[in-house]
Structures are given as C-alpha cells and as structure tokens.
Amino acid sequence: xxxxxxxxxxxxxxxxxxxxxxxxxxxxxxxxxxxxxxxxxxxxxxxxxxxxxxxxxxxxxxxxxxxxxxxxxxxxxxxxxxxxxxxxxxxxxxxxxxxxxxxxxxxxxxxxxxxxxxxxxxxxxxxxxxxxxxxxxxxxxxxxxxxxxxxxxxxxxxxxxxxxxxxxxxxxxxxxxxxxxxxxxxxxxxxxxxxxxxxxxxxxxxxxxxxxxxxxxxxxxxxxxxxxxxxxxxxxxxxxxxxxxxxxxxxxxxxxxxxxxxxxxxxxxxxxxxxxxxxxxxxxxxxxxxxxxxxxxxxxxxxxxxxxxxxxxxxxxxxxxxxxxxxxxxxxxxxxxxxxxxxxxxxxxxxxxxxxxxxxxxxxxxxx
Length: 368
Known about the structure:
Helices cover 77% and strands 1% of the residues. The chain is mainly α. It has one domain: Farnesyl Diphosphate Synthase, CATH 1.10.600.10. Strand 1 (105-106) and strand 2 (109-110) form a beta hairpin. The chain is globular, with a radius of gyration of 21 Å.
C-alpha cells in the first residue's frame, strides 16, 4: 500500500468517524451542530503528514526486515484508526494554537474561534463575542482530543501483544505531554524574550521547535506506528535519530513559509508569524545581526497585529539582508542530510527507507 491510498483510507475513516458522532452531538442539543460542522470543515483539509509517518513507521519494521508485507484486514483497520487518531490530535492542537496566536485563518478558512465569534454576532447573543468564540473553540479542541483518544484506544486494542499495546500507548502519551509543554514554551518565548539573555535566544527558539513541532510532527508518529508493530529498541532508536532532525527541518521550513509564504498556497496571510510575534529561529538570527538601534525598531514591529504590507516587506527584507534567511535554509539542508544519513544506517526495510527518504525531501521543500 502506498501513501496516496493510505491518505484516502484515513480521509474516509475520519469522515466516517465524525459522521458517527453527529447523532451524539445532535441528541444532546441541536445548538451543538456547529461542533460537528466545524470539525468536519477543519479535518477536510490537511496533508496528512502525521498519518503518513505513522504508516511508514509501521512498514519500516515489517517481518523479516523486507518491508514488502502489507497489513491484513484487521491490521489495516487498526492502523487506519491510529493514523486518523493522530490527525484528530493534530486538529485539536491547531484549534488551541490559533486561539493562543490570535490567528484569523486556518487552511484558507476562518479559524475555529473566529467562526464561533461570527456565530455570536449572527445570532445577536449577549456578552462579548470574542470571549464566546475563544471559550467555544477551547471546548472544540478538547472534544477533538477526546475523539482522537477514542480512535487511538480502538486501534491499540488490536495490538499483537500486551507489550506492544503498552509501548504504543506510552509513545502516544509522551507525544501529548511534549507537544502541550512545547506549546507553553512557545507562548513563554513570545512574552519573555526581552528578559532573556540574547546569547540564549537561538537555543531557546530551537527548544520550542523540538517540543512544539519536531517531535509530534515526525518523530512521534514514526515511533507510534513502529511500536504498534512491535519494533525493537534498536529500530525505535534509529527512527528517532532520523525523525528528530527531519522534524526540526520541517518546522524551520514552516517558519520560513510563515514569513515569506504565498497566502494562496499556505492558507494564511503572508507574514502572519510576524504579526503574531513568533520568536522563531529566523527572528533570533535576524536580531543577532542588527545593531542596537535597528534591533529596537525590529522588536517594536514584531508582534504588532496591525502591521501593514509595507512593514511586512521591510521585515522580510531585513531577514534577507542580515543573512538570517539563507542561514535557516542552510540549517534545513543540513538537518535533512543528518536525517538521511541516519536513515541509511537504520535497521529497517528497504522499501520504507526509500519512501521515507523521498518523503523527507518533499516535506522540507514544500511551498505550503
């Protein structure tokens, strides 16, 4: 089974699962229909990167190290549940992240909290629309987390042994802890950067990348998928050594797109990360190259939600002129090479190795 078929199966499972929850939502109260609709809309898009890494982690530890075996019907059903559960977890994280970042859009549509806010306006309800929108979206994110766990729990019931079940659940639990705390580290950096030793700013920005994104985007799905198939400690360690640098490169590319990306491709306004004040590696490298007066102006602009297109272009040019952009591009290339070197040494199947190498290049060279 190749990635396109897997993506289709995961899409179908998500659609089927959400449809099965519609009756529960409506039975409680018809006013809850937005929870079902907004969930469907959010999960109708996306590249399913986490699902694909989960699948190739599973394939990487095929019997006899050949990676030619395909899952039987029961195995496939459990694997698709697991992949779909990871995608629902990702959707929940996006809903909460958009509230924290005060983002207006997600995947070319209004962010969930903005949709609830609009509902408040349309219905002419009392009280502040913004707090209603944010509170409702927090609950939507929590609901998606619960639904994610339903799918993951259903998947691990088909694990071949108690040890495999336990290893898979542990990998999921570690992922959830790390990404939640990584989200806090990101929030902290946006508020505490002015009180931090500038010499440590790059180190702290990289720490956010590792725990907020790199692990849960690449490393964790690989390990979770491999764990479900009973991977050895050597195989899991190899997948981690491949997954972490690749996950860092993946997020560095995302940071570049957050500043320089085409809005029509990314689904978010160009320069949105600058308006949100994200203290990324790109920002840290830029600040380090500026003289004190230029740095003060740069700091005044970063995080201003009212930045206009001219100011965005000025900040973008500053990142080019200081060499920060080219440095980040070099960091991406170096980490991809590190990941591929680990992959060549990994005790995994040849087919999975080739697919993961191709996938690594694709996700770090993307334009959206």
